[in-house]
Amino acid sequence: MSAFDRFQTGPDDQGRRVDRIVRRLFPGLSLSMLYRMFRTGSVRLSGKKAKGSDLIQAGDEIIVKHPQGIVPIPENEDKKTLPNPGQNKKHSQFLESLILVRTPDLIIINKPKGLLTHGSEGLDELTTAYFSGTPSSSLSFRPAPLHRLDRNTSGVLAVSASIIGAQAFSAAMKAGLIGKEYLALLDGRLETKLYMEDRLLRNGKDKTSTVVDGDAGAIAETWLIPLAASARHTLVAIRIATGLTHQIRVQCAFHGFPLSGDTKYAGSPLLGGYLLHCVQLEFPVDFSAEIPHKVIAPLPSAFISALKGIFDPSSLDSKALQRYF
Fold first, then answer.
1. Which residue has the higher pLDDT, 95 or 325?
2. CA–centroid distance for 6 within its chain
3. What is the DSSP string of 158-187?
């Protein structure tokens, strides 16, 4: 016995493959069963037999003839709202408090230190809670963080609100058109700008990265720009052309200026751990989502307090620094 189900696609399904949407709607389908359904014409797109690679246009109707025991996810169930409504509201309100810029396509937040990007109690869970009360305009798209910051790195981070925003941001990132600037406290006194180009190799077992010789690993490019210095520390602006895991932490340590407090990578002890803040995202002028050219995330109060305890106040009064405070 077979059953039929009809689904109406929305604006955030535009351009997605129909086989991926059907698989999301029917998680109980094996891949072999999914492919057989397309071969036998059991999936129709706007009245015609569909191929798995067909791309969706907003408003298309998908009709799926499927085995009786395989049922689709009930509408909105895959939003994965938290079972506790009070907790769901708390998560939503917390994300609301982090928002720097909100458009129909993107949300830019100031991620606090200690918050995971993914996983339990992470930013993706907060995002799900935040959008749980919003009617979905898609069978398959769900808002989510578009890149990541380490748990103990704070700062500006983009979250998709629509498929248009997700695609535009991802394409710009892949083309190297999204500029990222960080502020960090380093051990040692850096007198001049420093350009670092190294190959990094990731060790999945101990979750560390190392600089390696030869052709192994991936190239990492980082610029350090000193902003303030004491006898033992330097506050730097950091710009990266690549985004490898632990890139800043590993390269700074390798070149003799580890992050203060980053004991995992040879940094000196610092109360509260290392200070690394993504202070700015810079978007191309022709970016398709409605977003400011530059989005700045103010420094956390703990970061500012630590700096004031290390540097002479006059060294923190420059215009280059004050815009971040």
1. 95
2. 33
3. EEESSHHHHHHHHHHHHTT--EEEEEEEEE
Quote the percentage of the chain above a pLDDT of 90: 49
Place of tokens 């086989």: 19
pLDDT-based confidence at residue 78 (cuts at 50, 70, 90): very low
**Residue 113: Cβ within 10 Å count:** 20
Q: What percent of the chain has pLDDT over 70?
A: 89
- 82-174: same fold as 2-73? no
Taking the domain 82-174, which CATH number applies?
3.30.2350.10
Q: What is the CATH number of domain 2-73?
A: 3.10.290.10
pLDDT score at 82: 43
Q: Which of 150, 213, 215, 262 is catalytic?
A: 150
Burial 93-112 (b: 16+ CB within 10 A, else e): eebeebebeeeebbbbbbbe
Do residues 293 and 275 touch, judged by C-beta distance below 8 A?
no
Helix H or strand E encompassing 7: strand 2-8
Class of 179-322 per CATH? alpha beta
- Residue 12 among the catalytic residues: no
| Structure letter (DSSP) for residue 282 | E
Residue ranges of domains in the chain: 2-73, 82-174, 179-322
Record the pTM. Answer: 0.80
Per residue in 151-194, pLDDT tens? 999 999 999 998 888 988 999 999 889 999 999 999 999 999 99
- Rounded to whole angstroms, how far apart are CA atoms 149 and 184? 14
Q: Are strands 233-240 and 154-160 parallel, antiparallel or unpaired?
A: unpaired
Q: Quick one: angle between helices 31-39 and 18-25, nearest 10?
A: 130
pLDDT mean over 222-246: 94
Instruction: Determine the pLDDT at residue 179.
Output: 93
Is the per-residue pLDDT at 197 higher than 90?
A: yes
The torsion angle over the Cα atoms of residues 92, 94, 96 and 100, rounded to 10 degrees, is -150
Report CA dihedral (112, 92, 124, 272) to the nearest 10 degrees: 20
